[in-house]
Design brief:
Blueprint lengths: L20 E2 L7 H30 L2 H4 L11 H29 L1 H11 L1 H10 L6 H10 L2 H16 L2 H16 L1 H15 L5 H22 L2 E2 L6 H8 L2 H31 L7 H8 L1 H8 L1 H11 L1 H25 L2 H39 L4 H41 L3 H23 L10
Parallel strand pairs: 1-2
Helix pairs in contact: 1-4, 1-7, 1-8, 1-9, 1-10, 3-4, 3-6, 3-7, 3-12, 3-18, 4-7, 4-10, 5-6, 5-10, 7-8, 7-18, 8-14, 9-13, 11-18, 12-13, 12-17, 12-18, 12-19, 14-17, 15-16, 15-17, 16-17, 16-19, 17-18, 18-19
Length: 458
């Protein structure tokens, strides 16, 4: 008989139950899983996605709030890019401590706390966002919005502990994709505000998210659980940092997730600055800003499925080739001042960044499974080797997620410098093209070339 502690009736409760704490959690036990473990895990997944989704929306809200900052505010384009660089930087930095917070405080407890923390940047923005506010004030407020960027890391760490290895790919893909959807949703919400009450009322958008944050925190408090078995393995972080694959995969994830979140922050501004004649009002730009992030979020799980079918390294390689082609299309469109081609190229970049998010994350456990298999062939104990593979792959997922998110900072810095120095984004597009070329070359050299060292099956 299972001793699964559950406070909502999905599974038997233990006599030693503490409220919303599960002391006995054995997801790899198929009997345990069938007797109610799957229902508990699914419920926690649903409400984790909800909180993470809103976290993404708050994190990237400045990607649309800058569209409300018209001439009355007196900010130049390079000032507005700073307002998207700062939350991207803070959110990326917070991902590592957020990864450890789940085991320290409990998945449910941290989800509730991190959700309630999202109220702070919303309230700050609600009070200060009006003509006459200084740039320094807005930089501080936008920095606080970075707390939403950490929610992804804690949510992924939490769901990783709930699911057995055989279902982790699907669960983590849904969790990540559902969170990423927070980017297009906040942009659609901004479009609705701009179309109804106009650019003079950004507080309507900000205020609308406050009850959503409170609702997500309440549902997490009511429906989620803590796992007593969740432990931080700081030694795993140290150990995996000695593996060269850690830095290769982190570099590749900068190219995929970093591109996705960076373009999500910047695209609306880029349209308004580069094609100002076509987008005289924020509403005109808002009609297009959500499309790329929406497609990139929805297609992320497809990248994982493709990696399962053809291999993560092969999919990642060809995906970076496609991203380089997309950057080339954007550069040509910019040089020719073709808005239609520009939008097509940027949409392709969003789509391929989403596919790459899925395929690179699939590569991480495959790398350590392949290394484990080689050790077992050499005589190592299968149980110990497999456990070590799971330990290191979990640590690398946390590190790559944090480092990859810094790509969003680099994208916005590239745009800011390009527009500041040349008045156009062409230098940034060339930089993206070169970077994606480096990514597909690195993928081929490390994981795909026929000769030399290679991890089979990655």
């Amino acid at each position: 008989m299972t001793t699964l502690i559950d406070t909502t009736g999905d599974a038997p409760a233990s006599a030693s139950a503490r409220s919303h704490w599960i002391d006995d959690w054995r997801p790899e036990d198929e009997r345990f899983w069938a007797d109610g473990g799957d229902k508990v895990a699914k419920r926690n997944l649903i409400f984790s996605i909800l909180s993470e989704h809103i976290g993404f929306s708050v994190w990237t809200m400045w990607s649309v709030l800058v569209l409300f900052l018209g001439p009355a505010y007196g900010f130049a384009p390079e000032d507005k890019f700073l307002l998207t660089i700062v939350p991207a930087l803070v959110g990326s930095t917070l991902r590592l401590p957020y990864t450890f917070a789940v085991a320290k405080f409990g998945g449910r407890n941290w989800t509730v706390s991190s959700a309630l923390l999202l109220i702070v940047p919303l309230v700050f923005a609600l009070f200060v966002l009006e003509p006459g506010v200084s740039l320094s004030t807005l930089l501080v407020v936008s920095a606080v919005a970075g707390v939403g960027g950490g929610n992804f890391a804690s949510s992924m760490a939490n769901i990783n502990t709930f699911y057995p290895d055989r279902f982790k790919g699907r669960a983590l893909g849904l969790n990540a994709g559902g969170g990423n959807l927070g980017v297009p949703v906040v942009q659609l919400a901004a479009l609705l505000v701009l179309a109804t009450v106009g650019a003079a009322h950004p507080r309507v958008l900000i205020g609308a998210y406050i009850p959503l944050v409170l609702g997500a925190a309440f549902m997490a408090w009511r429906k989620m659980d803590n796992l007593s078995s969740a432990k931080n393995d700081k030694r795993a972080m140290r150990d995996v940092c000695r593996d060269p694959n850690t830095w290769v995969m982190s570099f590749l994830y900068i190219g995929t997730f970093g591109s996705f979140i960076g373009f999500g922050f910047a695209f609306g501004q880029v349209l308004q600055v580069q094609f100002s004649a076509d987008f005289p009002t924020p509403l005109d730009a808002a009609y297009l800003t959500f499309l790329g992030p929406l497609l990139g979020s929805l297609i992320r799980p497809v990248g994982g499925v493709m990696a399962d079918t053809w291999g993560g390294a092969r999919v990642t390689f060809w995906n970076f080739v496609a991203m380089a082609a997309g950057a080339l299309v954007v550069l040509i469109a910019s040089l020719q001042e073709s808005l239609a081609l520009f939008v097509v190229g940027f949409t392709a970049l969003f789509v391929f960044s989403g596919i790459g998010n899925g395929s690179t994350y699939k590569m991480i456990p495959a790398i350590f499974r392949a290394k484990s298999a080689a050790l077992i062939v050499g005589g190592a104990d299968r149980t110990i080797s497999d456990r070590e593979a799971r330990r290191l792959s979990g640590a690398l997922i946390g590190i790559a997620g944090a480092i990859g998110a810094f790509g969003g900072v680099l994208v916005n810095v590239a745009f800011r410098q390009s527009f500041l120095e040349t008045g156009a984004g062409n230098a940034a597009y060339i930089a993206f093209l070169v970077f994606y070329g480096a990514c597909f070359a690195l993928t081929w050299v490390v994981y795909l070339r026929p000769s030399g060292r290679r991890l089979a099956g990655v």
